[in-house]
Amino acid sequence: MTAHIGTVARKEFEDAGRSKLLWALVGLLVGIVVVGYTAIWYTGEDASASEVLGFLGFPLQTIVPIAALIAGYMAVVGERRSGSIKLLLGLPPNRTDVVFGKLLGRLAVVGTAIGLAFLAALVLGAVYFGSVPFVDWLEFAAVTLLFGLAFAGLAVGSSAAVSTRGKSMALVVGVYVIFVVLWELVTAGPYYLVHDEGPPVEAQTWYLVLEQFNPMSAYTTMASNAIEGTVFPFTFQYGLEDFEAAGMTPAERYAGDAPFYLQDWFGVVVLLFWLVVPVAIGYYRFKKADL
Amino acid sequence: MTAIETRGLTKTYGDLVAVDDLELTVEEGEVFGFLGPNGAGKSTTINMLLDFTRPTAGSATVLGYDTQTEADAISPRVGVLPEGFDIYPRLSGRRHIEFAIETKDAADDPDAILERIGLSAADAARPAGGYSKGMRQRLATGMALVGDPDLLIMDEPSSGLDPHGIREMQDLVRSEAERGTTVFFSSHILEHVEAVCDRVGVLNEGELVAVDTIAGLRESIGGGATMELTIAEAADGLCHVADDVDGVTDVAVSGRTLECTVTDSAAKADVVIALDDAGATIEDVRIEDVSLESLFTTLTDGDTATDSGQDGDGTTPATARSEVAE
Q1: How far apart (Å, rounded) are the C-alpha atoms in residues B55 and A290?
Q2: CB pair distance less than 8 Å for B71 and A94
Q3: pLDDT in tens, A14-59
Q4: Under 8 Å between Cβ of B184 and B24
Q5: Domain range spanning residue B26?
Q6: What is the ipTM of this complex?
Q7: Which of B50, B91, B103 sits opposite A15 (nearest CB)?
Q8: B166 interfaces chain A, CB cutoff of 8 Å
Q9: What CATH code is carried by the domain that includes residue B205?
């Protein structure tokens, strides 16, 4: 019985549309675009609209995940704490409708914010730099959208999995810190302990597979392909791994032709993984929970 | 057909038994009051009926459907006013009603519902976050009424309402009952229940201590009354006179007042005659039926005196154990 997912999602989106949260996120993302474009235009750099688009990669990869996590981490647990979930579950929607309706609603919120930011980029690129790199723009926007949705899914999954907002916040902050700050320690660290040396550029396949499951690098790899120039991943480096390796994609580090699961496009699967798996875990736990 | 039936329904939280082997049957069409002090397990029971909480043991059916395996068949037929709920602060009252109509796929007119619960058009248009407790309660009641449910489950519907609001709530329960709706509602305040209920069940410490009509309950505790007689002179010496009358079980004296507990109605006149014969000048007689409140206290306080002490006082608005119900 999933007849009510759409109804819940619509209510959710409408509710969010009246919240300052959505507008703060939209303002933040659009603001970054406007400030960035204006600054580059003002300093008189001789850049094409396509190149300028690339400058967005770095700020977006830091702001989008945070914005999406904020938008989602309270989705289910917030209603659980306030008690409005009892009103909702007292109506025909069941727990499945609640989790997936909320997921869709929050994805729509994050998607709207990202969409508006890219719309601003398109318009400002045309106004300031006189061209519309439409294909680059579309691809970059799609990758960024998926990136944002992955984190929104992660957050909604977390909000469904736990019983207090504090736990949900700790969970999403913890995961974000692992992605950005601790990733190298978590992946290269054990490698170092086992092999007594850091992973080389041409590391074993299993290591490359593990390595690419960081959504940050999955995003930057695909974003770099979409635009002119390179978007470097915003992750802390500890020197356990070759610094040269840090800037390379798994496919580049693989000796010979990379298998499909190490190619750049596999980042789509990685981002979907971070969208789907936390939601599945959260859904499973929420189904069993005493409210 | 039964509206609600529980079989051995039990819920424990660690060592705490919130609901203990509950066997309860509510017939279709009746108004059933579910009574008990705060922390007695009323909300936990209702939460299990609504599948918000899963039983540790036992099972329950609502409208013939199992609460766990067939919950999706129950919710469209039931109107729920939960305990400890909240509204969506940013959405208007009207939008709440519309949402309930959408989910129940009902043909109700939002304005008609709003009028029934007494929310003005202006109030219904503004965000519900600014509503008072009573208005939130009305709004949630309105959402429960959408789709003309077969069964209304209301958990402490009178909380947050002023006396006028409580009367309106009682009127609403009566009018729903006249439409053939079964009403199951909980309260820790007996007078809110006695005016509208066909039957009541009294829950204490997770156990059902009585299920009966209000009249039946009254009878079971003696069907008696209290006579308060004011005498012109000191009443001390008259104590044994009143006590000797058949049907008087207890006499208390304070100053010029005699308070007699009478189990047999005919004994009231005998008391007056006996006192008159003894030369007493009776200035006033007041007769009170045993209040349900005291009946209630008798039923629920029976053996709790030695307990932890937190729940000894059933009239405290929020005891520590009401936390469990969430």
Answers
A1: 9
A2: yes
A3: 888 888 877 888 899 999 999 988 988 888 777 788 888 888 888 8
A4: no
A5: 2-219
A6: 0.88
A7: B91
A8: no
A9: 3.40.50.300
